[in-house]
Structures are given as C-alpha cells and as structure tokens.
C-alpha cells in the first residue's frame, strides 16, 4: 500500500473475518481522493497485522471513551482526531 492509502484507511475498510483491507482512497495535503490508479483493490492481511490492528482498535476505543465520544475516530491513523500528514510520518 502507498503511504497516502494507509493514511486514508478507515475501520470500515478492514474485513476482520476474511483478513483483508479494501483500498478505496488516498489522503494527501489535506484531501481525501481516489487512489492513484482510481481502482479499488483488496490487500490481504497477515495474522500478525490482524492482531496489531485489533490492539490498535481497542486502544482507539479507550481513547474515544476518555474523550467522551461514543465511537473511535473513523480514520485508523490519526493525530488529534485528524488524519496524519505524510510529512509528519516521514519525520517520525
């Protein structure tokens, strides 16, 4: 997956049962748009990735409860409830 595609992922894009991620969009310079090719595709997940994402979802749910929100932020990778910029990821 491209970095922008990762940053645009939402929890609804993850199929926990069949272990894949549906890639439909990209995030760059504050905008969510179609993928570079405009195609939607499936990316298979390893068992290790499924476990890591489940742990992250549990953490995000706890953060949401502490912030008084009912549900976690839909965006998987966020910073202060807003999508992360690519330059932030590159700096880290």
Describe the structure.
This protein is an alpha+beta fold and 92 residues long. Helices cover 34% and strands 24% of the residues. It contains three helices and seven strands. It has helices at 3-7, 47-66, 86-91, and strands at 14-15, 20-23, 25-28, 31-34, 41-44, 78-79, 82-83. The strands form three sheets. Strands 1-2-5 form a three-stranded antiparallel beta sheet, with no helix packed on it. A hairpin with a 2-residue loop joins β3 (25-28) and β4 (31-34).
Describe what is shown at a glance.
It is built from three helices and seven strands.
What topology does this entry show?
Layout: H1 3-7, E1 14-15, E2 20-23, E3 25-28, E4 31-34, E5 41-44, H2 47-66, E6 78-79, E7 82-83, H3 86-91
Antiparallel strand pairs: 1-2, 2-5, 3-4, 6-7
Distance between the termini: 19 Å
Please state roughly what percent of the residues sit in beta strands, choosing from under 5%, 5-15%, 15-25%, 25-35%, 35-45% or over 45%.
Answer: 15-25%
Number of helices: 3
Uncertain runs: none
Instruction: Write the element-wise H/E pattern from the N-terminal end onward.
Output: HEEEEEHEEH
Q: Helix share of residues? A: 25-40%
Oligomeric form of this entry?
single chain
- The pLDDT mean sits at 90
* Biggest sheet record: 3 strands, antiparallel
**How many strands in all?**
7
Strand order, largest beta sheet: 1-2-5
Strand-pairing-aware structural class: alpha+beta
Radius of gyration, rounded?
13 Å
């Amino acid at each position: 997956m491209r970095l922008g595609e990762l940053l645009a992922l939402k929890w609804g894009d993850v199929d926990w049962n069949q272990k894949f991620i549906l890639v439909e969009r990209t995030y760059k310079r504050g905008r969510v748009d179609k993928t570079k090719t405009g195609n939607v595709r499936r990316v298979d997940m390893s068992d290790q990735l499924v476990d890591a994402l489940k742990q992250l979802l549990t953490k995000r749910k706890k953060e949401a409860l502490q912030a008084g929100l009912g549900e976690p932020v839909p965006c998987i990778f966020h910073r202060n409830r807003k999508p992360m910029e690519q330059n932030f990821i590159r700096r880290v």
